[in-house]
Amino acid sequence: MYTPLTEIYLDCNATTPLLPAARDAALQAMEAQFGNPSSSHCTGLRARAWVDDVRARASRLLGVGAGRLLFVSGATEGIQTAVLSALCALRERRDAGERVDGPLLVGATEHKAVPQSLAHWNRVLGLNLPIVEVPVDRNGLHDMAFLQAHIAHAGLLCTMAANNETGVISDIAGIEALLHATNSRALWLVDCVQALGKLSLNLQGTRIDYAPFSGHKLYAPKGIGMLYVRAGSPFTPLMVGGGQEAGQRSGTENMPGIAALGAVLQALETGEGGVFRSTTFLQQARLRLAEALRNAFPGLVFNMPFDGSLPTTLNFSVPGLSSKALLNLFDAAGMRISAGSACSAAKAEPSFVLCAMGLPAWQAEGAARLSIGALTDDALIDEACARIARCGAALQSAATAVQPPAITPVVPAASLPDMQESSLTAATLPAFLQSHPDALLVDVREPFEHAVGQHSLPWSTPALCNVPLATLGQHLPAWLDEGHRPLVFFCRSGGRSLQAVQALRARGHGQAWHLGGGLALSS
User: Fold this and answer.
1) Quick check: 255 and 224 in contact, CB under 8 A?
2) Longest dimension (CA), the chain
3) Where are the chain's structural domains?
4) How close are the terminal C-alpha atoms of the chain, in Å?
5) What pLDDT shows up at residue 389?
6) 413-521 adopts what CATH topology?
7) Which H helix or E strand runs over 466?
8) What is the DSSP string of 124-138?
9) Per-residue pLDDT reduced to its tens digit, 425-452
10) Which residues are marked as active site?
11) How many CB atoms sit inside 10 A of residue 508's CB?
12) Which residues are CB-contacts of 200 (< 8 A; sequence separation ≥ 6)?
């Protein structure tokens, strides 16, 4: 089958691999410590002790003090719970006769989970309070003058400790000073997802009311997270029914997830084995990657300040290259990067974070994010720099690398009822080729992908041609004249091959097919 290059994972802001100790702890929880923490027998009591131990460790690391620390499924649930708690408190104040009409303030660069949660619960609870975006400057920092003008009467303020796309670290101390100076009663939600393991936190020493965390951003599995609630801050459970987490979050505890998170927190707290790299190491690693990028891509600009951002994050744009082209290029070289938040990756839109920062349209539309993790080592950085250099060389040798697809707009898939039937898979393709010996396989990847990929294909057929999507329009007339011949398009992910099929089928060629999921699902 298709054999890609050894993967270099550079998208740690989206998710991270599993720490070996976390995997072992999860397996132990499933195999040996499988008890229900709510059971009163010995097996259950041992499970309860494990949960309590992890909570205590997390409380020490985060400086929870007298506050609550709940285990939740992840940051989204934590955000939902925090927003619901805050807005329920505002409604109770209104029902008691207090005037509550101030705005709900949310940073313009917040993860979409925050403003969308705000809009949802604001509507469901019937508050209908104005939701106001707090602008940011060109460095991604909140506009303090705007905050000062609006914070005094606000009901809720939502900011983040560090931005997931740019790594920009918010001025939490400055925001807190404004809250005190204006005697604001606003509740304060701080998204700490990117802060875990990267920034020093002492939550009890701050004015922060709610802080969500997500385990899979720091080498724990998906499906486990935490929510901090400051002592005395209003709280309304999002989930009720079983009484777990002292009635604050019902549902049987995710023991494997909690155990795995505990192993990560233990490595973070004790520093055993030097598992996690120092800030100094990560800063130097980022500088090396930045230099490699500058050398490989003339005109490249970084979309974040190096001072005041996480040492794990690089956000950059290259003149003349779309973010999709950059991702295709890096992916072909076996490097996994992203165009921003993984939750928005499927939407072909400019980065709203960079737009909010006032960056030019070409930077927001062509931005790519490279993010390393605390397990990064010198060998990975060495290899990544070498591959980045190859990517730059491949672009220089491929004249069509920056051209847009030279085809007229195609009919959307939704308006073509048989488009689902045009999709083949790695499992069904061999049988299809056997039953259609005259089929032509059409590789619509760009030349630069071939230059850096060095991949062999799994199909033994001589009927194979390379037609980059950018040149598809040149071949359409001939293919339409040969409408009886089956055409099977493929690319890296299945996106461009689907566009090719749409172009053919919209023009009456009924024998066009594509490899769904692309080569990525053929390994």
Assistant:
1) no
2) 79
3) 20-270, 277-397, 413-521
4) 6
5) 96
6) Oxidized Rhodanese; domain 1 (3.40.250)
7) strand 464-466
8) HTT--PPEEEE-B-T
9) 988 988 888 898 888 899 998 888 888 8
10) 343
11) 8
12) none
- Nearest CA-CA partner of 222 in 77, 375, 80: 77
Q: What residues does 157 pair with on adjacent strands?
A: 105, 188
Tell me the residue type at 346.
A
pLDDT of 274 over the 70 cut: yes
Which residues are paired to 512 by β-bridges? 487
Cα–Cα–Cα angle for 241, 243, 245, rounded to 5 degrees: 130
Block residue for tokens 């500058």: 294
* Relative orientation angle of helices 378-397 and 323-332, to the nearest 10 degrees: 120
pLDDT given at position 340: 65
Return the closest-CA partner of residue 160 out of 172, 148, 149. Answer: 172
- State the CATH class of domain 20-270: alpha beta
CA atoms within 13 Å, Cβ hemisphere of 228:
33
Q: Which of 471, 487, 473, 470 is nearest to 424 (CA)?
A: 487
Taking only the tens place, the pLDDT of each residue in 350-367 is 999 999 999 999 999 999
Which value, to the nearest 10 degrees, does the dihedral of the CA atoms of residues 372, 374, 375, 380 take? Answer: 30
Given this structure, which CATH class describes domain 277-397?
A: alpha beta
pLDDT per residue over 502-523, tens digit each?
988 888 888 899 999 888 887 6
Beta-strand relationship, 225-229 and 68-72:
antiparallel
Q: What is the DSSP string of 366-431?
A: S-EEEE--TT--HHHHHHHHHHHHHHHHHHHH-TTTTPPP-SPPPPPGGG-TTGGGGEE-TTTHHH
- CA-nearest of 163, 206, 207 to 186 is 207
Helix or strand or coil: residue 289? helix
H or E segment and range at residue 189: strand 187-191
* Mean pLDDT along residues 253-275: 91
Q: What is the pTM of this model?
A: 0.90
